[in-house]
């Protein structure tokens, strides 16, 4: 049975889902953007009995204290520090960690900051260690101010409909349409779609949350990251030590979908890709502003991790989009459970 609790810590009071015996080995699930802990309910329910499943709502999402804002200039550190503080509040010294998308980006930072507290890390379609949007293979921003990443890169019509709690799918910018087009591979639609949409609509919205603020820029596409909210926090310019996770030593499993349009070397949410496709006018060309090679970045980073003698396992799911644990649950469970047993 999955229960919801409110867990206070010195950093953040938030809703946390738990299941399994208190004495079980903890497995902490970290959700992605436009979601909440509820997205993990199925995976939590199917976890073997020897584990204790834990899934918090991140700062700026779901049942987290709405007054707690994300300081984007710290990159993923607000989330990473919140996670460690929650573990302290729950009496957890170390845990297996599973992160999806934005949650995966949080775990790169957690591995850097709290290396000894990760028994293992499973990255599910994670954001690149270098951040999201407007950067080249080595993580260098395409413009000094990282124009084209952060809150200003979010489609304003989508942000408006999300804040309004829209549940329709007649427009390509409605939240349900975004989920069904990009977050899992069509024509798949999860059986629990209403629960997942509820979680998406629980995103905290506004200029301090989602999409966050933005700054004007003299560089294409004329908008740069602001300083508040989770989308700005993913901007490469704020990832000060993207390879800091190399100091960790735990095993890492990377699970991704072969047809993921979100985290990709040609992401349809990256303005470099959209400019190349002609969807955003004025694109300055591939030399100045290439699509961010997100998969190539993660591949190289994990190769560097493996070169230090660490265990790295990669599993690519065919016919799968951005949410392997929703789209192919049996395959996902088999891969995750075997990895946890070995770790």
Short description:
With 343 residues, this protein is α/β, with parallel strands linked by helices.
Record keyword descriptors for this entry:
globular; two-stranded parallel sheet; eight-stranded mixed β-sheet; 29% helix; 11 helices; alpha/beta; Rossmann fold; 343 residues
CATH class: Alpha Beta
The main sheet comes to: 8 strands, mixed
Order of helices and strands: EEEHEHEHEHHHEEEEHEHHEHH
Oligomer state equals: single chain
Please render the helix and strand layout as text.
Blueprint: E1 3-7, E2 14-19, E3 25-30, H1 41-45, E4 51-56, H2 77-89, E5 95-100, H3 102-113, E6 118-124, H4 156-163, H5 175-183, H6 193-201, E7 205-206, E8 210-211, E9 214-216, E10 223-225, H7 230-233, E11 252-257, H8 271-276, H9 294-307, E12 312-317, H10 324-327, H11 329-342
Parallel strand pairs: 3-4, 3-5, 5-6, 6-11, 7-8, 11-12
Antiparallel strand pairs: 1-2, 2-4, 9-10
Helix pairs in contact: 2-3
Describe the structure.
Strands 1-2-4-3-5-6-11-12 form an eight-stranded mixed sheet, sandwiched between helices. The chain has a two-stranded parallel ribbon with strand order 7-8. The protein has helices at residues 41-45, 77-89, 102-113, 156-163, 175-183, 193-201, 230-233, 271-276, 294-307, 324-327, 329-342; strands at residues 3-7, 14-19, 25-30, 51-56, 95-100, 118-124, 205-206, 210-211, 214-216, 223-225, 252-257, 312-317. The mean pLDDT is 98. The protein is built from eleven helices and twelve strands. The chain is an alpha/beta fold and 343 residues long. The chain has one domain (3-142, 235-342): 3-Layer(aba) Sandwich (Rossmann fold), CATH 3.40.50.1820.
């Amino acid at each position: 049975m999955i229960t919801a609790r409110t867990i206070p810590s010195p950093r953040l009071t938030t809703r946390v889902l738990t299941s399994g015996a208190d004495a079980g080995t903890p497995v902490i699930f970290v959700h992605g953007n436009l979601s909440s802990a509820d997205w993990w309910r199925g995976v939590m329910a199917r976890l073997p009995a020897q584990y204790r499943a834990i899934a918090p709502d991140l700062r700026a999402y779901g049942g987290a204290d709405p007054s707690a804002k994300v300081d984007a200039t710290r990159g993923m550190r607000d989330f990473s520090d919140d996670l460690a503080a929650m573990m302290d509040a729950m009496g957890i010294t170390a845990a297996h960690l599973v992160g999806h998308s934005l949650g995966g980006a949080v775990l790169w930072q957690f591995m850097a900051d709290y290396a000894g507290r990760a028994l293992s890390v499973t990255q599910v379609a994670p954001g690149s260690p270098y951040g999201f949007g407007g950067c080249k293979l080595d993580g260098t921003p395409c413009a000094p101010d990282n124009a084209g990443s952060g809150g200003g890169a979010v489609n304003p019509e989508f942000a408006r409909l999300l804040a309004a709690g829209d549940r329709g799918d007649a427009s390509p910018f409605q939240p349900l349409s975004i989920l069904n087009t990009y977050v899992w591979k069509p024509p798949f639609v999860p059986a629990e779609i209403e629960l997942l949409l509820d979680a998406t609509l629980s995103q905290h919205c506004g200029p301090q949350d989602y999409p966050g603020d933005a700054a004007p820029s003299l560089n294409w596409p004329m908008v740069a990251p602001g300083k508040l909210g989770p989308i700005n926090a993913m901007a490469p310019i704020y990832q000060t030590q993207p390879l800091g996770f190399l100091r960790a030593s735990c095993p890492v499993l990377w699970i991704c979908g072969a047809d993921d349009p979100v985290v990709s070397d040609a992401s349809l949410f990256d303005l470099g890709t959209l400019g190349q496709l002609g969807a955003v006018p004025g694109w300055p060309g591939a030399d100045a502003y290439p699509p961010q090679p997100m998969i190539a970045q993660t591949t190289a980073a994990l190769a560097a991790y493996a070169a230090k003698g660490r265990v790295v396992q990669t599993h690519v799911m065919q016919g799968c989009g951005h949410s392997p644990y929703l789209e192919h649950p049996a395959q996902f469970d088999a891969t995750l459970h075997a990895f946890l047993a070995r770790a």
